[in-house]
Design a protein that fits this description.
3 domains; 3-stranded antiparallel sheet
């Protein structure tokens, strides 16, 4: 039996009061390579680089006899400075709030999911983050795992999460699986055509032929106005990961 851990918060912290679902914590190294490309960094409030007092937007201040031509100013030091001097060089933290997910940085190198369309069951993260769930340590509901928000499959390499994923809206499990379909470029033939390429590029067949002959368009096994489909590499099919709900 997996160990569910202990709720050191005694049910008082790190959960969504509207749903009762706990926040989920995961090491950033567990996520996919590009999972956090669109995060918003927090560089703190603008401050004076000399005295440390709060900086003021120069547009919001009336000046008499001192320089106010730059982005921010300090009324104590009576000087202005550009924004690159008003903020920390290193971010103080980061966050995501895209309408579906709400995530903040946690501890030294973790992410904490405060809102998500998905949840899973995991070991309590206590005492590090009392009351939250550790997504790096999944524990089934039957073994006492805590229900906590989580990232969906598409946040991980190969589009498969390392834990079961459930929909908050329906309660159904969401699985990720391979789906093979005919290639949309060649319609399953494995051969692309000059005609399709010229239509896609909004040009003429003659110009596409010239570019292929000149090597401007690089194709393989070119003959009779056809060539190996570059999208499916001649297989005629494409495979992608898709998600679907299954009745829990």
């Amino acid at each position: 039996m997996a160990y569910p851990g202990i709720d050191y918060s005694l049910g008082r912290s790190n959960f969504d009061p509207e749903t009762g679902i706990r926040f989920g914590v995961i090491g950033m190294g567990s996520l996919g390579e590009y999972a956090l490309d669109d995060i918003d960094y927090d560089y703190g409030d603008a401050t004076c680089p000399d005295c440390g007092n709060p900086a003021i937007d120069s547009n919001d201040v009336e000046f008499d006899d001192w320089d106010a031509e730059k982005d921010y100013c300090c009324e104590v030091c009576k000087k202005s400075f550009w924004s690159d001097r008003a903020f920390s060089e290193e971010p103080l933290g980061w966050s995501i709030d895209d309408g579906d997910y709400k995530v903040v940085n946690c501890l030294d190198s973790d992410a904490m999911v405060l809102r998500s369309p998905y949840y899973t069951y995991a070991q309590y993260c206590s005492p590090c983050v009392p009351g939250a769930g550790s997504l790096d340590n999944p524990v089934s509901e039957s073994d006492g795992g805590v229900k906590c928000y989580c990232f969906g499959h598409d946040w991980f390499d190969d589009d498969v999460a390392p834990y079961p994923v459930y929909s908050v809206a329906s309660g159904n499990q969401v699985i990720s699986e391979e789906q093979t379909t005919p290639c949309p470029n060649c319609n399953g033939s494995g051969r692309d055509t000059v005609q399709r390429l010229s239509t896609a590029r909004q040009t003429t067949n003659a110009l596409v032929r010239e570019q292929i002959t000149a090597g401007t368009i690089n194709v393989h096994d070119y003959h009779d106005d056809t060539f190996t489909c570059f999208r499916c590499d001649g297989k005629g099919t494409q495979t992608e990961m898709v998600t679907r709900e299954v009745q829990s």
